[in-house]
Amino acid sequence: MARDDARPVIRLRSTEGTGTTYVTRKSRRNTPDRLVLSKYDPRLHRHTEFREER
């Protein structure tokens, strides 16, 4: 199966400024806005907000 631009690879960066990132894919059709998820930040040992960077 070919990879296309309908599900691009995005990088989620911590809003706390630790530099921690997660890499995932998202659907542009279902989620056209920037993604914001609460994920675990191992440098802070707690959950924080991670925002999509482009």
Automatic annotation (TrEMBL):
Ribosomal protein: present as a keyword of the record?
A: yes
MF annotations from Gene Ontology: structural constituent of ribosome
- What Gene Ontology terms describe where this protein resides (cellular component)? cytosolic large ribosomal subunit
Q: Does the keyword Ribonucleoprotein apply?
A: yes
Q: Name one GO biological process term.
A: translation
Give the superkingdom in one word: Bacteria
Keywords, sorted A to Z: Ribonucleoprotein, Ribosomal protein
* HAMAP family (UniProt xref): Ribosomal_bL33
Family to which this protein belongs: Belongs to the bacterial ribosomal protein bL33 family.
This protein is called: Large ribosomal subunit protein bL33
What organism, scientifically named, is this protein from? Nocardiopsis eucommiae
